[in-house]
Amino acid sequence: MNKENRNLVLTVAIVAIIFIGGYASIVAYTGYTSPFSVVTSQSMQHDNNRSEIGIIDTGDIVLIRDPSKETIVTYVEGYKTGYSTFGDYGSVIIYNRGNDQNPVIHRAILWLDYNDGVWSAPSLKDFDDWYFIDDNDPSHTKTDWTNITGTLFICGTSISMSSLSPQSGYLTKGDNNSRFDQPSIIDHLVTPDEIRSIPVMEIPWLGTLKILINNGGENLEYVPNSIPSLVMFFVTIFGLIILYDSIFLFRLRKEASKKLEWIESHRR
After folding, report:
1. In degrees rounded to 5, what are phi and psi of residue 212?
2. Which of 89, 106, 192, 263 could staple 78 via S-S, CB 3.0–4.6 A?
């Protein structure tokens, strides 16, 4: 095998090792052999007219982790500690809603405990933006987190406790939605065994290609800047590759020219 072939084989082997090693590292970190998920709805957007880096928008791809590898922090807990993801407090979760429907990617707002007919939420202690109105005493607002009844008001949104199935779980909501998922999307709080994965990183725009092919561009009107941004991303990448090749070739030619000059000078 000549030198050029050896260098080619070595280069291919190095690239293969990098890709295989990188993929293996991602699988080990996430716990999934398919660690990416395409976002097809606008429910997590913070702007209805454009895609934003750092926010989960239509057409984004998210890197997901197994729930066993992540600690789920609710919006209430995140507000008190300063923990935030994707532009707001707390963790975003992907959960199954059953009936062969697509999974939902929304934020965990509050963990509610249900025990012997009583709702409670320990994380609401020392949290200011909440109260409830007891159906038997509608003239007064209450903040007894050990016994929540009637209608719960939190983060500018309300929910009737009687609309929930009697079980503990997460109260969830899309960042772009005006109401909680319960009971409009799912009739009960999201339980830990219903949580499919935890998004940990956003890759902007790349999922628009899949939406265009499989969904006919559904919901892409909410992110009109995604396709131009994706095109500019690829143009920039290819431009950098071409620039690198040009610099590399220029250096090779310069070195070859110097060698020729040296050879010519020594021939004389």
Report:
1. -65, -40
2. 89
CA proximity to 122, closest of 82, 157, 80, 163: 80
Q: Residues near 98 by Cβ (< 8 Å), separated by ≥ 6?
A: 186
Residue 200, φ and ψ in degrees, nearest 5 = -125, -15
User: Does the structure show a pLDDT above 90 at 196?
Assistant: yes
The pLDDT tens digits for 225-239 are 998 988 888 888 888
User: Band of the pLDDT at 154, cuts 50, 70, 90?
Assistant: very high
Cβ(185)–Cβ(206) below 8 Å: no
The whole-angstrom separation of Cα 127 and Cα 244 is 54
* Amino acid at site 241: I
CA 55 to chain centre: 8
Gap between the Cα atoms of 268 and 263, Å rounded: 9
- Is residue 249 a part of any domain in this protein? no
Identify whether residues 149 and 223 lie together within a single domain: yes
Structural domain including 81 reads 31-234
244-258: pLDDT as tens digits:
778 877 777 777 676
CA dist 256 and 203 (Å) reads: 42
